[in-house]
């Protein structure tokens, strides 16, 4: 029986609630309603009093979680959309991120952000916030791109003593399926080679991993072997795996769905140029969403974000350098 990306997130939360009485879930309409995307469907009946509906205040939600974590709980916060987490930004970056460093008391909270765009969602329900939160020390930023990672990385995040921003991509909720969940997975902070190659490296994460693989499959018809690196974890970031891939290929394209200015793709290029400039045979490139608010119209949205076609076009330019 296959499992979707969304079902894997639900199963991970079920398992966390089952095995650890300190875990609870807090968010808007997550109880009987099951959440905006049904990621907590039926969990309230399975675990009475531990899947709790929150007021419409992301600030209050995160503040409550921080207080509970300080007192020994391990809260999971569900934001209805990643965009709304900006309302709780002060609590996340000024309280949760600094808690351990100020007091030597850990703050083990997980904040689930339904991230990225879907057709027709527009500027308030489509943003990718990982670059913003990665700027702040004290936060772990995870961006699972597979069903397996959605499950295992969420469980690992709940076990961490650090506050975790868990960026789950809405477009993958139902589009991605797996036949089974393996027992073992890579640790947090370790990237994976999603597709081996030798002519160019694409570093991507979240939904852009799949767009990059599709682009690589297309270029293979012309004899090009493109290596795709799935970051999995934005912070900590696995610089060693990135550099090893660039050493094999000599060319680098970084792909992200977030806005371009100061993003994850820029950080990857900065690290490669600083530590692996001698490995490059061409200037490293990046491809992000357009530097504009995200449009509502499905056709405009498709033109706004990177796609397999636009990634393939950038790779062809890079390969000709």
From TrEMBL:
Name of the protein: Alpha-ketoacid dehydrogenase subunit beta
InterPro entries, per the entry: THDP-binding, Transketo_C/PFOR_II, Transketolase-like_Pyr-bd, Transketolase_C
Molecular function, one GO term: oxidoreductase activity
Oxidoreductase as UniProt keyword: yes
Oxidoreductase among keywords: yes
Co-factor(s): thiamine diphosphate
The species this protein was found in: Phragmitibacter flavus
Alphabetical UniProt keywords: Oxidoreductase, Thiamine pyrophosphate
Gene3D superfamilies the record matches: 3.40.50.920, 3.40.50.970
Domain spans labelled Transketolase-like pyrimidine-binding: 3-175
Highest taxon listed in the record's lineage: Bacteria
